[in-house]
Design brief:
By secondary structure, this protein is an alpha/beta fold. Helices cover 44% and strands 15% of the residues. The protein has 12 helices and 8 strands. An 8-stranded parallel beta barrel has the order 1-2-3-4-5-6-7-8, surrounded by 4 helices. Helix 2 links the parallel strand 2 and strand 3. The protein binds glyceraldehyde-3-phosphate. It is an enzyme of class 5 (isomerase).
Length: 249
Amino acid sequence: MARKPIIVGNWKMNKNNAETKAFFEKVDAVAASENATYGIGCPFTDLRTAVDNAKNLIVAAENCHWIDSGAYTGEVSVPMLEEIGLKYCIIGHSERRQMFGDTDETVNKKAKRLIEAGITPILCIGETEAQYDAGETEKVIRDQLTGSIADLCPKCVGNMVIAYEPIWAIGTGKSATKDDAQKCCAIVRDQVRVMYGDEAAENVRVQYGGSVKPGNIVEYMACPDIDGALIGGASLKEDSFIEIIEKTK
Ligand SMILES: O=C[C@H](O)COP(=O)(O)O
């Protein structure tokens, strides 16, 4: 089965409601495509506005908690995301792992709860610059996946999106070469194969993330194991995200 590409912008902690509305009014119509899925991950406060203005773009939260309710100040639960009608949620982004204590174990709990709710996790992994320099990239990818996608069903994993994002390439303008990105996304797929078999490995969509922009998206998308991209900076401006869509639809 051919995998449908999925390209998602991750706004991180950017944009208010008026800016969200303006972005969707300009970009949503362009994102109509039979061949690929396009979407935006945005702050919790923008989600309702995004969903209300999205006909074609999919909308993702940038995080969630795995427990449904309780004394967890500042957290947002999966049922709260369900109530807004979300179908995707980014989990385990390296900024959350590095600054807010997310671990493979908590990412795994989030993935399980999202899958139970029918929300597709966009699960992020990737090595630091020091790990890259030490030649540990493959081990880091396999170890992070071993923890983050543990104890799921093969079909559930096949339906997931896994974003490989080398941390040294995020927001730095220093993107991975297409050959390196392809090699690492193939390792992601192979680790899924090791853990869940051929069908899950063939179905799982693997994104590359890290300084993706209109000028390099096409070469990444031409790689056999890259099924999409998770895009930070270049998703913030309407024109650059439109250019990315136009070049890949
Ligand atoms: O989630 C997106 C990544 O952190 C990539 O960000 P970037 O495109 O600004 O490098």
